[in-house]
Amino acid sequence: MAKKTEFTVEEKLRALYDLQLIDSRVDKIRSVRGELPLEVEDLEDEVAGLKVRIEKINEELNQYSDEIKSKKNAIEHSKSMIKKYNDQQKNVRNNRAFESLSKEIEFQELEIELCTKQIKELETQIEFKKESIEQNNEALKERSEHLEHKKGELQDILKETENEENELLKKSNEFESKIDESLLISYKKIRSSVRNGLAVVAVDRGASAGSFFTIPPQVQLDIASRKKLITDEHSGRILVDKELADEESLKMEKLFTSL
User: Of the residues 45, 94, 155, 252, which has the maximum number of CB atoms within 10 A of its CB?
Assistant: First the structure.
């Protein structure tokens, strides 16, 4: 069974700082994309929603058209019944039968009146829905064009940065393998808790980068000795000396240029 490679504290610090530089580079690439992926996603949802809305309105229009046909058929049926009752009235022999047929005729006339009113209401609804479809189609066209524009922007940025990002992510995994799992977990936890994603920072002019708190001289000497991992008591960030940071920054800059 192969023996697991043991790394010195200095090697771990260098690997951590290199990992930080790589991850910060990835952060920078992703910041260039900014909110574009979310904008594209939101626009896609909006376009899909408009299409569903238009489809639903068209279904309602078809339903209204079917209802109008049904009402017109009912009117024709009532007209035929009125004609039938009128013909029957000509042959009745008593007033009771005549009155009964008159009531049937009156009922059918009311049915015609009601259906005519309902047809007008449905036709009004159809006009309203047609206007709504027109407005939604205009919105769909505008949002679709905007979506294509944003997709184009995103594709251009992806073309410029995708290969570099993928290579950097491979390097990130490579450097992670040099770091103890518990230390890596701490690094990622710190990264996720700070706004700029900096979990490993250099000590410069007696303070850690981005901090106004002075680090005691003895702690600065311990950091420079690279014999143990030291964190900033205020921010929790892992600290490295400036010389190590400069050396690794120069080395990683060459790596980034070659990608």
Answer: 252
